[in-house]
Structures are given as structure tokens and as C-alpha cells.
Amino acid sequence: MEKVESLYFGDLEYKLENAHRLHREFGARLEADPEIREHLKRLLHLQEDVTEVMRGMGLFESCAECGGRAGGGCCSSMMADETDSMLLLINLSAGFEVGPKRDDDYECCFLGPEGCSLKFKPFFCLNYLCRKIQTESSPLQLARLQGATSEFLGQILILEGLIRRQLSADGDGASLLKSREGV
Fold it and tell me: From the centroid of its chain, how far is CA 126?
């Protein structure tokens, strides 16, 4: 019997290795599933909606300015721990490269010169609104942002369920997910 925990827990190195292993072994199966393909397509569209709302609010410039100051911004090294093998696998399944962009123990390892290298970001990263964002944005802007991110995050949950169903399918007599001791 497989443990779903292997998708969500462990250190970052394990999560990355696990996501890449699952994609190598089962990526073709996931990508062949028409329902998963349709949900990935919808997820890409919803991500574009989130990006447009954020761009309209000036968040990319504001966050880059904040992150460039001494003391940095919200994208600390601890943020990488907010991701999991499932979210990394979803990024890989959508055709996006996943891997650390830095190793400085200060900022998130997924933070590159263009910002976050993950197309589909962890829940916390999308839901967190610092005080600056809250005070410099109108209630309408905040409502639009929260609406777009909640729709996006809801789609992620649906897609996770579909992928877990495929990964735990027992068509060949063996579980597709591998558990890890201590996880």
C-alpha cells in the first residue's frame, strides 16, 4: 500500500529527486491522460490570469525592489520548503524545467534573475500578501488577486487528485508511488 506522504513531505533534495523520478517513469502516462491534459491546459490559462492581475498591480516591480534590498523580501530560503513533489511534478508535466537556481541559504533556491522559476508556485507564495501589498493596493485589486489565485489553487487541487489517481493505479500489479522511510 502506497503512502501519499511521499508526494508531500521530505527535504527539498528528496522532493526534487522524487518529482524528477516520477516524471521520468510516469510522465508519458500522465501526459497521455486526456483529463490531465485538459486540466493542465486550464491551469496554464489560470496562471496567465494570475500573472496579468499581478502585473496590473505592479507586484513584479514592487517585489523585485523589496527583494533587492538588504534583508531581502518574502522569497527567503525557507520558501523552497513550501513546495512538494506533487507541485514540482505538475510543473514538469506542463513542460517546465524544475531545479534550484541558487544555493546561498538566504533566498529561495527557485528565485532566479527573472523571479521565481516555478511556473506553478506553492500555495503559500500565492496567498501571502505582505503589508506593503495590502496597504498600496485597492480593495478591488486585492479582491481580483485573491479571486484569480483561489481559482488557480482550486485547479491545482483538482489536478493533484487526477495525478494521484494515475500514480496509484495498479494496472501492472505494483504501486507507482514509492514510499520513503522516515517520511
Answer: 9
Residue range of the domain that includes 27 = 4-167
3-state SS, residue 36: helix
DSSP track, 149-171: HHHHHHHHHHHHHHHHHHHT--T
* Residue among 164, 148, 150, 182 at smallest CA distance from 52: 148
Number of domains, the chain? 1
Q: Are 134 and 94 in contact (CB under 8 A)?
A: no
What is the mean pLDDT for each group of 10 consecutive residues in the chain (183 residues)? 72 94 94 95 96 92 75 78 93 93 82 84 89 93 96 96 85 44 40
pTM recorded for the entire structure:
0.86
Q: 146-151, long-range: CB within 8 Å, 24+ apart, which pairs?
A: 148/46, 148/49, 148/50, 148/53, 149/50, 151/46, 151/49
Grid coordinates representing 114 are: 527573472
The owner of cell 534573475 is 113
Helix (H) or strand (E) holding 31: helix 12-32
176 within a domain of the structure (yes/no): no
Q: Is residue 173 part of a domain?
A: no
Distance in angstroms (rounded) separating the CA atoms of residues 111 and 6: 25
